[in-house]
Amino acid sequence: MTASHPAADAGDLRRSRLAGAFTEEYGTAPDGAWRAPGRVNLIGEHTDYNDGFVLPFAIDRSVLAAVRLRADGGPVRLASTYGASGLSRSSFDLAALAPGTVSGWGAYPAGVVHALQAAGHQVPGFDLLLDSTVPVGAGLSSSHAVEVAVAVALNELLGLGLSAPELARLTQRAENDFVGAPTGIMDQSASLMGSRGRALFLDCRTLSAQSVPLPLAEQGLTVLVIDTRVAHSHADGGYGARRASCEAAAAAFGVPSLRRLPADADLSRLDPTTRARVQHVLAENERVLAAVRVLQEGRIRDVGPLLTDSHRSLRDLYEVSCPELDAAVDAALAGGALGARMTGGGFGGSAIALLEEEAVDVVAAAVQAEFAAHGFAAPALFSVLPADGAGRA
User: Fold this and answer.
1) What are the GHMP kinase C-terminal domain coordinates in residue numbering (predicted)?
2) Reduced 3-state DSSP string for 275-343
3) Domain 217-384, CATH class in plain words
4) Rg of the chain over CA atoms, in angstroms?
5) At residue 235, does pLDDT exceed 60?
6) Nearest-angstrom CA–CA distance, 128 and 70
7) Whether residue 82 has pLDDT greater than 80
8) What are phi and psi of 274, to 5 degrees?
9) How far apart, in Å, are the Cα atoms of 202 and each of 193, 214, 260, 390?
10) Region 342-368: what's the mean pLDDT?
11) For residue 17, is pLDDT > 60?
């Protein structure tokens, strides 16, 4: 097996095909196309909604959105290539838009419009066609990439002048208030502010962001994504329960978030489960800071053990892993990876492994053999590199 490095997926051919499909669907050409990448979170899991630190990078797989504004007052018309055969379609009435009125993938564009309306922006009717190379359900933030693509398109077409941090907050409100998923700010920020060959060190309390060198290709390294094909959803109860547990712990100490927890806080006051959740968040923040330090010092391989420690914490303290993710991590390490961990919200999705490019085939074979031995469905494996953030395609 050779993990693939996807071609520059917002290139001329893909954009041209999308424009042609848009014209065929709606009878006229789009006003333009906008790109928003998925993301891999290198380290810093379940820290974002606790006002902590994260270190994601935008990946070279993306959502592409072709959009045309309309002045006829009609409904917003949506189409995407997500359907099993042909296009999948959805629509909604701007005047009647409210949480619960749009379901399925259409809820993500609708959530962005709802958030814009709630912020006082007038949104006219428009037509939209989406295409994506971000695997759905793999924990690579495919839904946030849809929201960001729609947000940057409408921001430009309507001349709103919203900054990247403002767009991140807007899409977070779309996810929280309309879709009903209690996600933090990391995924949108990575998609909006990522840059080629670098990771994004984000302080989720202040939204201050710092670009950090992540020269994988230059160092003969790669990040292998192991998509377990176990679907997950942030709208499910497990994610929300973890967030509620953290919020309850913060409230017990009279602070707005775990980021503000005093260094001498007596965690023994908490029940064992809540204490374990807090211990993960505190230690994970320290791992992010350590990862930033070693990357700034050019010691990229030293990130590996931090990734593995992160997975153990997510597995044992935060309890968001699953047998397939554990098998992926264990097999990758046994095959020679420098470090590996689950990435994303957990309960399925993907693991990542930092490894030498020359070790890709060996590690991939080890993972595939481990999955077969457990009777798991065969995983999808592919390599990713840090890519530029969202913008006009």
Assistant:
1) 294-372
2) HHHHHHHHHHHHHHHHHHHHHHCCCHHHHHHHHHHHHHHHHHCCCCCCHHHHHHHHHHHHCCCCEEEEE
3) alpha beta
4) 21
5) no
6) 11
7) no
8) -65, -40
9) 10, 15, 16, 17
10) 95
11) yes
Q: What is the pLDDT of residue 5?
A: 43
Name the token pair of 178.
């309309």
At residue 11 the predicted structure's pLDDT band, cuts being 50, 70 and 90, is: confident
Determine the Cα–Cα distance for residues 360 and 391; give it in Å rounded to an integer. Answer: 31
Token couple for 345: 């919200």
**Given its phi and psi angles, is residue 25 left (phi above 0), alpha (psi -120 to 50 degrees) or beta?**
alpha
- The closest alpha carbon to 356, from 222, 215, 228, 166, belongs to 222
Whole-prediction pTM value? Answer: 0.88
Query: How far is Cα 179 from Cα 153, in angstroms, rounded to an integer?
Result: 20
9 labelled catalytic: no
Return all residues near 55 (Cβ < 8 A) that are at least 6 apart.
41, 42, 43, 44, 199, 200, 201, 202, 212, 288, 291, 292
Q: Which two tokens stand for residue 204?
A: 């989720």
Residues 174, 115: contact at Cβ < 8 Å? Answer: yes
| AA identity, residue 247 | E
Q: Is 46 helix (H, G, I), strand (E, B) or coil?
A: coil
Q: Determine the straight-line distance between the first and last CA of the chain, rounded to whole angstroms.
A: 31
- Domain positions in the chain: 12-212, 217-384
CATH code of the domain occupying 12-212: 3.30.230.10
Q: What is the mean pLDDT of the chain?
A: 93
Q: E strands, the chain, where? A: 32-43, 53-69, 76-80, 88-92, 126-132, 198-203, 209-213, 221-227, 339-343, 350-356, 380-384, 391-392
User: pLDDT class for 83, splitting at 50, 70, 90?
Assistant: low
For the record, the structure tokens of 220 come out as: 């003969």
Give the pLDDT mean for 15-26: 96
Best CA proximity match to 284, nearest among 39, 85, 125, 49? 49
Rounded to whole angstroms, the Cα distance separating 61 from 39 reads: 8
Q: Where does the pLDDT of residue 237 fall: very low under 50, low under 70, confident under 90, or very high at 90 and above?
A: low
User: Hey, what long-range contacts does 254-262 have (CB within 8 A, 24 or more apart)?
Assistant: 256/51, 257/50, 257/51, 257/205, 258/50, 258/51, 258/52, 258/282, 259/50, 259/51, 259/52, 259/204, 259/205, 259/285, 260/51
- For residue 109, list its beta bridge partners: none
pLDDT at 137 over 80: no
Asked if 71 and 127 count as a contact pair (C-beta separation under 8 A), the reply is no
Is 60 exceeded by the pLDDT of residue 234?
no
